[in-house]
Q: What sequence folds into this?
């Protein structure tokens, strides 16, 4: 581990990103899941774009949340299995900052692809062009919030049997506020109204969560690894 | 000097004995207040101007909802104390409180639903308070599930403590956002789960019920706490002497 | 108010009485469960103490 914390964080970030992209399929899975879940709704409800447009905000957000949840289980798992996680905790660098780096890498590999794909999926649900930017922006903030909160869940359920189901159970109530504001932002944009209110609230939530969650993640990691 | 008193309190044999002696002092007053409150609420209080006799559900719904949140706050506080000061008794208090709080939340949801049906015609409404209670129930379930999934008691204590603290920090955010969400889509006929304008004769039974539920929680929590202490201290030597008496 | 009127609760009986019933059930159940939990813990602790005492 390098001397300065900043370079340690950078090292962790780049390493996790490299590992993630070495397994292309793992990066693609959440994206495909996102697309599939989005497809379920026209099939289940109606092919009428008018009807789909009315629920598009909620559908996109729920599908993205569930897809992002998928990847959380693997956030710490492999590092825990081969002992790297313990090394990181023993390294003397603040565990919270290393956790922040890992979370950022996870978001880059898992959340960001969802954001990039979201305008396409939004169009398939009849979302007008004017709203696509809001869709992507709201999900950019939302997947960040989810990565941060999800990391807490992943750290708490590390190594537990059926940890992934438990993880979802723990994390979903915490992200409900983000869902409320994010879906609302998309809805406003679809109707041509400015979505700045909900988007600003999302941004505030992201800042709040990114500041505090790493502390909880670090505490949870120490508890789970000991 | 004050710390020795606190440390003594946190010692398991001491806590076990004190809990045992305190519990009836919570339990019996709770029972009396419950009877008084129910009599006052069901018999004495006049029917509401708008809701008629139906408003009487308030006397079980409001205390349940109040306690569901009070217990969560207590649980999270105890968990935080256990985490920061590493006091095992605090973790035991949190563990003892959780199922009680979950039941209060369930009661609040069930009575809220039963109250909503005659007022608004459906068994469930996505009213801000009911939705918040539902999310609170999910938070309780998560806490209980996490505890149940971890075999090692110390890890279970500390992990669930982190979860409880994270939950309690999020609770105001959840409340605020659910309220905001609810006002967005409110039809003009839908109002908050109606607390009728409360006159004196209607008020005192409500306060009695709330106090009764609070004392009840204290009593039941203390009994569960005793059970927790016995489980956690299974091999301690003080047990033999204590149980013989 | 007559007993019949009281039970009828102005027509809301189907909602008021089950509400009361559910709440009382929750309250009574928690008392029973807590006492059973304590009794079981006591019994197990006594068994362990007895076994250990028998060995020493």
A:
């Amino acid at each position: 581990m390098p001397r300065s914390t900043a370079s340690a964080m950078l090292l962790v970030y780049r390493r996790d990103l490299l590992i993630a992209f070495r397994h292309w399929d793992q990066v693609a899975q959440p994206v495909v899941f996102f697309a599939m879940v989005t497809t379920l709704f026209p099939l289940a409800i109606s092919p009428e774009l008018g009807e789909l447009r009315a629920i598009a905000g909620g559908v996109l957000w729920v599908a993205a949340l569930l897809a992002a949840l998928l990847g959380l289980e693997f956030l710490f798992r492999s590092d825990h299995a081969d002992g790297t996680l313990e090394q990181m905790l023993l390294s003397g660098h603040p565990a919270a900052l290393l956790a922040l780096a890992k979370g950022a890498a996870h978001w880059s590999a898992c959340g960001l692809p969802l954001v990039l794909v979201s305008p396409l999926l939004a169009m398939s649900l009849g979302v007008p062009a004017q709203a696509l930017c809001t869709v992507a922006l709201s999900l950019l903030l939302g997947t960040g919030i989810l990565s941060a909160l999800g990391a807490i869940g992943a750290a708490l359920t590390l190594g537990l049997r059926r940890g992934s189901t438990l993880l979802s159970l723990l994390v979903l109530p915490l992200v409900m506020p983000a869902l409320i504001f994010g879906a609302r932002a998309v809805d406003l944009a679809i109707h041509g109204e400015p979505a700045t209110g909900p988007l600003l609230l999302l941004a505030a939530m992201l800042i709040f969560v990114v500041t505090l969650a790493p502390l909880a993640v670090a505490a949870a990691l120490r508890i789970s690894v000991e | 000097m004050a710390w020795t008193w606190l440390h003594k309190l946190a010692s398991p044999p001491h806590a076990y004995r004190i809990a045992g002696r305190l519990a009836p002092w919570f339990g019996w007053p709770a029972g009396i207040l419950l009877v008084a409150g129910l009599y006052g609420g069901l018999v004495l209080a006049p029917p509401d101007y708008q809701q008629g006799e139906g408003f009487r559900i308030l006397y079980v719904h409001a205390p349940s909802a109040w306690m569901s949140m009070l217990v969560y706050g207590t649980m999270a506080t105890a968990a935080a104390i256990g985490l920061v000061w590493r006091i095992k008794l605090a973790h035991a208090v949190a563990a003892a409180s959780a199922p009680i709080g979950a039941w209060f939340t369930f009661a609040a949801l069930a009575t809220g639903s039963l109250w909503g049906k005659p007022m608004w015609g459906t068994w469930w409404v996505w009213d801000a308070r009911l939705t918040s209670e539902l999310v609170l129930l999910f938070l309780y379930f998560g806490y209980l599930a996490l505890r149940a999934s971890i075999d090692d008691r110390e890890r279970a204590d500390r992990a669930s403590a982190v979860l409880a603290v994270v939950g309690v920090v999020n609770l105001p955010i959840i409340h605020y956002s659910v309220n905001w969400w609810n006002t967005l889509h409110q039809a003009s006929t839908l109002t908050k789960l109606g607390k009728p304008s409360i006159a004196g004769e209607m008020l005192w039974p409500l306060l009695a019920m709330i106090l009764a539920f609070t004392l009840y929680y204290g009593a039941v929590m203390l009994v569960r706490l005793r059970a927790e202490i016995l489980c956690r201290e299974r091999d301690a030597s003080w047990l033999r002497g204590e149980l013989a008496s | 108010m007559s007993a019949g009127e009281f039970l009828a609760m102005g027509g809301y009986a189907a909602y008021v009485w089950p509400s009361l019933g559910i709440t009382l059930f929750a309250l009574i159940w928690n008392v029973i469960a807590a006492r059973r939990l304590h009794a079981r813990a006591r019994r197990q602790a006594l068994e362990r103490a007895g076994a250990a005492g028998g060995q020493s």
